[in-house]
Design a protein that fits this description.
The protein starts with a helix and ends with a helix. By secondary structure, it is mainly alpha-helical. The chain binds zinc ion (ZN). The site of zinc ion has 4 residues, from α1.
Length: 219
């Protein structure tokens, strides 16, 4: 479903653009794939499901948000902190990077509040995340995910203009500056709304999981 979104985006962008502007930016690259994912998840969750099956779909949705957004935002915060240190003229070492990364992982996962135990091995995780070797990739990835979730929310809410805006964004390919393109089609990624909506979705999925676990003996 995810890759099918990329395929659709590429077909539409190539059909409407000359070769030079057919390739789209990372900023919009995950929109079709994530819109597809969210629509499929919501379609499945709308079915009459046994608790175990519902938990599986909810768990899959939560893991998708964690991996594509929550974790990427944490990565982006790490990149920002690294760049700020360099801008202040401070030297970086493997140990310093480990300490900075550990602080973020602990904070994002509530380790000090006892939510998730922190395994010290993870302090060095930054070293094998390939995204850090591509400029600003994680920041663009997380914003793209937020845009896709916002489009899905508009479809699900029955927004009449959603289809037109969605297709216009995909068909534009790389012919426009991506931020402005999205803003003109109802999604302003410099505003809080797309991120608030995504965090609200993450909270809702977790609440549903907890509600099922509270009333059943499902392990
Ligand atoms: Zn993708």
């Amino acid at each position: 479903m995810h890759e099918w979104g990329h395929a659709m985006h590429t077909v539409l962008a190539k059909r409407r653009n000359p070769y030079e502007t057919a390739s789209y930016a990372t900023f919009t690259a995950e929109i079709a794939s994530i819109t597809n994912e969210v629509l499929l998840q919501e379609h499945l969750l709308a079915q009459d499901l046994a608790d175990r099956e519902r938990l599986f779909y909810l768990g899959t949705a939560l893991e998708a948000i964690r991996g594509t957004f929550f974790r990427q935002v944490m990565f982006a915060e790490f990149e920002l902190a690294v760049h700020e240190r360099v801008e202040r003229g401070e030297a970086l070492s493997g140990e310093k990077l480990n300490a900075m990364y550990e602080e973020l992982v602990r904070r994002y996962h509530g380790s000090d509040a006892g939510v998730l135990a922190f395994d010290p091995t993870y302090a060095v995780e930054w070293a094998f995340v390939p995204h850090f070797y591509t400029n600003f990739y994680v920041f663009q990835y997380a914003t793209s995910i937020a845009g896709g979730t916002m489009f899905a929310a508009r479809f699900l809410a029955g927004d009449e203009g959603a289809r037109r805006d969605y297709l216009a964004v995909l068909e534009a390919g790389g012919s426009r500056y991506a931020y402005e393109l999205l803003r003109e089609h109802g999604i302003d990624l410099a505003s809080d709304a797309p991120y608030d909506a995504l965090i609200a979705r993450m909270d809702r999925v977790m609440d549903e999981i907890e509600a099922i676990l509270d009333r059943t003996a499902v392990p």
